[in-house]
Amino acid sequence: MNKIKADDVIVSVADALQYISYYHPPDFVKAMHAAYKRETSSAAKDTIRQILINSKMSALGRRPLCQDTGIVIIFAELGINAQFSGKYGLEDMLNKGVELAYADLENPLRNSIVSPPYGDRKNTGDNTPAVIHTRIVAGDKLRLTIAAKGAGSENKAVYANLNPAADIKRWVVETVGSLGSGWCPPGIIGLGIGGSPEKAMLMAKESLLEHIDIHDIIENGPVTEDEKLRLSLYHKLNTLGIGAQGLGGRTTVLDVKLKTYPTHAASLPVALIPNCAATRHISVELDGSGSVSLPTPDLSIWPEFAKSPKTFRKINVAELNKSVIKELTIGETVLLSGKIITARDAVHKKIQDILQAGGKLADYGLDFTGRLLYYVGPVTATQGEVVGPAGPTTASRMDRYTRMMLDELKLLGMIGKAERGEKTISLIKKYGAIYFIAVGGAAYLISKSIKSAKVIAFAELGMEAVYEFEIEDMPVTVAVDFYGNSIHQLGPQKFKATTVPRSRRGT
């Protein structure tokens, strides 16, 4: 065979990462559309609708599905007889491909990797290094399976070494039920059972890269024990009523994937990793004939949606006050217009440090009094854009700062994704504030409601800098209201009993 050129590997990795940044896998689009059609929860149905609209917009605009363009995971299967030309080792080639992809001027991707992992945590500036797993196999080709995994779902990974007699189904259902909605359901649950701790985790991650086929199993019936377990868990997990974005609904998982491996007689390692609504992965193969060519998906697989039949309440942020907030109810979708400010983890920590040192935020041009704060770290804008894809980040990471923001800084409300902790909900009630959620997995759609964006503080923090956005009809849902009611608590509770037909309960 021809030698595989280093440049072909680099370009192939870069092209693949660009490709998956804006194209959902077709099987995922079809599974999400099927979930939309069977959904009976209006809030969940509208959320899935936004995810699918965002997906098609990203495919057409070739811009990221999600602002969190992920940590890159690469599974490399290297043929034992493969030969390479060039001066780089395999990992260097792969990382150079990542660097090239994330610096693309037409579709820049957000750099999210920090080093060291504790302490200074400085951004590496090019999203490297990737997490690379290499396996030597028969043959003379290089097969790469490439994924970009967002932190919202990665942070929900769980490992347990169960008693060999333990009920695996029960553990999985209880674990998924405890994850909250920060992993942006509906998505896929990956399981690794057996081997050793690190093997189980690796299998769980690998399983997420397989084709969605649960409905084939439903139609034809399970054949193997693994298929029986997957199908049983699929039904059980969808009876939890968590639903899209945790709002309550029929579909929490689109599929349950599973890999197994023999294990020690005294052990039962089990790993669980969820994949979010921004599922991104692809496999490519190099044989020395050049870089890979990636097909343009058939755009007809994306559904067309008529204008929403709902009439949503419109609110000018400048007129948002406690009197208006009192009228809002959980689960209600509103369209926000006006000026809001942004801040994520690093900014909150910086503000805390400034205040503890006796400093004044006015010296930095900041005043949060009566403002609405959006937890977001947008993608760099390209030519003609006001801002890049700008979806919400997981709000619970900011819970530790909520008292400071509501009490000392007089913040009026927050926009993020997923649930808030009990203490934070109590603080929202105490200070008469509001917490909205935007749809995780609809970053490009949300960015189109942002009409202007300017950095107003801490520019050195890059995507974590403080922006002021001027928005127009930005869709958000009331998640915690003035009275301390939470949609993430009441929505699933309300829906759990009617999630699936009675005949399937207990399967």
Class inferred from helices and paired strands: alpha/beta
The largest sheet is:
5 strands, mixed, barrel
What is the total domain count?
3
Helix content: 25-40%
The overall pLDDT, averaged over residues, is 94
State the CATH topology of the largest domain: fumarase
> In the CATH classification, which architecture of the largest domain applies?
Alpha-Beta Barrel
CATH class descriptor name of the largest domain: Alpha Beta
Count every helix, treating DSSP H or I runs of 4 or more residues as helices: 15
Number of strands: 19
Strand content: 15-25%
User: End-to-end span in angstroms?
Assistant: 52 Å
Shape: globular
CATH superfamily of the largest domain: Fe-S hydro-lyase, tartrate dehydratase beta-type, catalytic domain
Ranges with pLDDT <50 over ≥5 residues?
498-507
Order of adjacent strands in the largest pleated sheet: 14-15-16-17-19
Q: Measured on Cα atoms, how large is the radius of gyration?
A: 23 Å
